[in-house]
UniProtKB/TrEMBL annotation:
InterPro entries on file: Rab3GAP2 (IPR026059), RAB3GAP2_C (IPR029257)
Domain Rab3GAP regulatory subunit C-terminal: 146-740
Record's protein name: Rab3 GTPase-activating protein non-catalytic subunit
Domain of life: Eukaryota
Length: 760
């Protein structure tokens, strides 16, 4: 009896019955195969999307590149068919409310499965779009829900869509049909207001991380909007304007403007994503775990929320994963600016011959980078990009200080920044955020042990000894760059940071370059003072020097000024320095020069090296020259250090280098008398220590004063006694040349020349 039946239960059963009928109908439509249309030609598709031939061709190229680089595929289990859905799931997720069907909240995968059940066959052109849309509308689906299901399906099937270009025309027909349903587009909608219907579609595209699918659906949305606007405006105004031209109406529509903006953003995003998928194949390079973490995927929404530096930041993260030479970024820039001179391109290209051989895939990367530069002339301006790369590398180094190569690369990128204001700000921020604390603990450790600390001690402080050496070298490079940037910034303007028109609505964190430009100017003398300490520490570690307490080379004022804010004014040492401190400084510089020559000599013995490669320790680090520069800061006579360098070279038997270095010395007379003793030690070894018969005979013929003098010589002070006598003869001639005749040792030198000539 009807009265006895609960009304709610009756309604429940009636609703479930309707759903069952719908399920049967959709399954039936899916099983009927329709006559497939011939796939549309490129020309048809271009017309459908209202694109000029060249624009359509560009779109195709972008999608091809994206497909090539985007090799991630979604794995589908064998039992999942796209157009089937279990009845249980269908009944579970759909419910009726007042003749309308609602979809319950469900996970993405299930939402896609539901959309797939309704629309996948239609998108492949295997089912009738009209019948399916008609059935779903009659069943009580709102067009908004259907649009949401359709878009979700489309955006999740990117790979299939790219393999089947004709699915675009199927999407176009479906979207046209859905848009014509009642309550899809509000009756009151006109060209001057934004329709929530199109806004819903744009929002889905903005949030999608499947850039190619989103770009295609936006093109379809734009085209259908234009088609409908043409219809609406045509109807309303055809009486007034004869032969109204679609273009002029399109220009008036607010929705069309929003579509155009979104198309530009999606294209930018696609180009960027294609770049981020490309990689340099590394043949032998050791890769850090930090470089293997995958990059997240991009969406327009993510970029709009990432702040002004978001675009450069994503590219910098990719550069870090690739680990290529910073000059690659400049080379792509040179290729983009076609007006750059042939020479500069040639010069840059030569640098890369080696890189290209080492890294397969660099050519593709250069092309993709150029394209990204053209899309983002402001966000990826080369200085901005180097600044972000510099920051990314130092952030990653900070996670693992053993990876000294990251800090070195960070400094390389810093040095590539051409605007001194940006360079100054980034360097100062690096110093304050990552460097100064570690440097001060390294300093106090070295001062405590009074020498270059062993690996175990270094590790306790923060990093191994090799990493520590590189770190100290980077600190001195960083401060040197900061000093240079401070000087150069007086000669140039700070850059104006612009944003591309399509991205002006970006919100989010302040960019690293904006922060850099807000930094206060440094106090030059204080940075110089800190630079001297860094170089002393670096030399101590580099040559494993013993008995050096770095802080003992400074007075109390000097010590107090270390590790202070570099923009502050501090009391620095001035006037005369304590003689004891000066004596320690001179001893230190002498040690550095001796160690440098020793390293040079052993590297020469290892293999015959070209002269310009004689200081292969570091890029462009010439320690003897550096020691002379330090002498100037430390109030030590530069000439004393230069003379010591010459004597060390001769002591090691590197006479050819000694002759060159001789020219740099100011007081050649003092140097000549120092070298006279060196020549005497060589001769003493040849005559007294080898003790050949001829040598003994010769000794008897030498003047007695010379004999006595030679016997007083100690050849053990020489580092290398095996020097040909002809070479020593040249040395004695050089000595005579620079000793005045009234010099106390002039006659001794003359006797020495005769002796050497007799021997040879």
């Amino acid at each position: 009896e009807l009265e006895c039946v609960d009304e709610g239960l009756l309604q429940f059963c009636a609703n479930k019955l309707k759903l069952l009928h719908l399920y049967e109908l959709v399954s039936k439509l899916n099983s009927q195969s329709v006559q497939k249309d011939t796939p549309p030609s490129d020309n048809d598709l271009a017309k459908l999307l209202r694109l000029e031939e060249k624009d359509f061709h560009r779109l195709q190229t972008l999608l091809e590149d994206y497909k090539k680089e985007n090799t991630q595929t979604t794995v589908q289990s064998a039992d999942e068919k796209d157009d089937t859905l279990s009845l249980k799931m269908f009944l579970e997720y759909l419910e009726y409310e007042k003749d309308m069907i609602n979809v319950k909240n469900m996970e993405d995968r299930e939402y896609v499965a539901l959309g797939s059940f309704f629309f996948w066959k239609c998108l492949r052109g295997e089912s009738s779009t009209e019948e399916m849309c008609g059935a779903l509308e009659s069943a009580g689906f709102s067009p908004q829900i259907l649009l949401s299901l359709l878009l979700n399906l489309w955006l999740s099937k990117e790979k299939d869509i790219l393999d089947k270009p004709d699915s675009v025309s199927c999407l176009h027909s479906m979207l046209s049909l859905l848009s014509k349903m009642k309550v899809a587009i509000d009756e009151s909608w006109d060209t001057q207001s934004v329709s929530p219907w199109w806004q819903q579609m744009r929002t889905a595209c903005i949030q999608s991380e499947n850039n190619a699918a989103a770009l295609l659906s936006a093109h379809v949305g734009h085209s259908v909007t234009a088609q409908i606007i043409h219809g609406v405006t045509g109807k309303k105004f055809s009486q007034v304007i004869v032969g109204s031209d679609a273009e002029s109406w399109e220009a008036l529509s607010l929705d069309t403007e929003y579509w155009k903006l979104l198309l530009k953003q999606l294209e930018d995003c696609l180009i960027l994503q294609t770049l981020l998928h490309s990689r340099v194949s590394k043949k032998s390079k050791k890769v850090s775990l930090l470089q293997t973490e995958p990059l997240g995927r991009l969406s327009v929404k993510k970029l709009l929320e990432a702040g002004k530096g978001g675009i450069a930041d994503t590219v910098a993260k990719w550069v870090f994963k690739q680990g290529f030479n910073p000059l690659v970024l400049n080379l792509a820039q040179h290729k983009t600016n076609t007006d750059s001179t042939e020479e500069s391109v040639e010069m840059h290209t030569n640098i890369f011959i080696e890189e290209l051989e080492a890294d397969a895939g660099l050519e593709t990367i250069l092309e993709l980078l150029q394209l990204a530069y053209q899309q983002f002339p402001c966000s990826l301006e080369v200085d901005v990009l180097h600044a972000h790369c510099c920051w990314e590398y130092v952030v990653q180094w900070n996670k693992d200080p053993e990876e000294a190569c990251f800090l070195l690369r960070s400094i390389d990128h810093l040095r590539c920044i051409t605007n001194a204001h940006v360079q100054h700000g980034i360097a100062l921020m690096m110093w304050n955020t990552f460097i100064v604390k570690r440097l001060s603990s390294a300093t106090y450790l070295m001062d405590k042990v009074g020498k270059a600390p062993k690996d175990r001690l270094c590790r306790r402080a923060s990093m191994g000894d090799t990493a520590m050496t590189a770190f100290l070298g980077c600190c001195s490079d960083l401060l040197q760059t900061l000093l240079e940037a401070d000087v150069s910034s007086d000669e140039m303007q700070a850059p104006v940071l612009d944003t591309e028109d399509a991205w002006v609505s970006v919100e989010g964190p302040v960019s690293i370059v904006e922060l850099a430009l807000e930094q206060k100017r440094i106090h030059y003398p204080l940075v110089e003072h800190q630079f001297v300490l860094c170089t002393i520490l670096y030399a101590t570690m580099r040559f494993s020097l013993k008995s050096v307490k770095p802080l003992s080379l400074f007075d109390s004022k000097g010590k107090n000024a270390f590790f202070k804010d570099l923009t502050s004014i501090q009391l620095l040492p001035s006037g005369d320095m304590d003689p004891n401190v000066l004596s320690l400084r001179q001893q230190f510089l002498v040690k550095v020069v001796s160690a440098a020559v020793q390293t040079l000599c052993s590297s020469q013995k290892a293999k015959e090296v070209l002269e310009e490669e004689l200081f292969p320790f570091e890029k462009g680090k010439n320690w003897p020259t550096l020691a002379v520069d330090l002498a100037q800061y430390l109030q030590i006579s530069e000439d004393v250090i230069k003379r010591h360098y010459v004597c060390e070279l001769y002591s090691y038997g590197l006479d050819h280098l000694g002759e060159e270095a001789f020219l740099q010395v100011t007081d050649k007379e003092v140097l000549a008398s120092q070298l006279l003793i060196l020549a005497g030690q060589r001769l003493a070894f040849a005559l007294l220590h080898v003790q050949t018969k001829e040598g003994m005979e010769l000794l008897t013929r030498l003047p007695p004063t010379l004999c006595t003098w030679l016997k007083a010589m100690d050849p053990q002070e020489l580092q290398n006694v095996e020097v040909p006598i002809a070479t020593t003869a040249k040395l004695v001639n050089k000595v005579i040349e620079h000793l005045p005749e009234n010099h106390g040792q002039y006659s001794l030198a003359l006797n020495l020349i005769e002796a050497v000539e007799t021997i040879s």
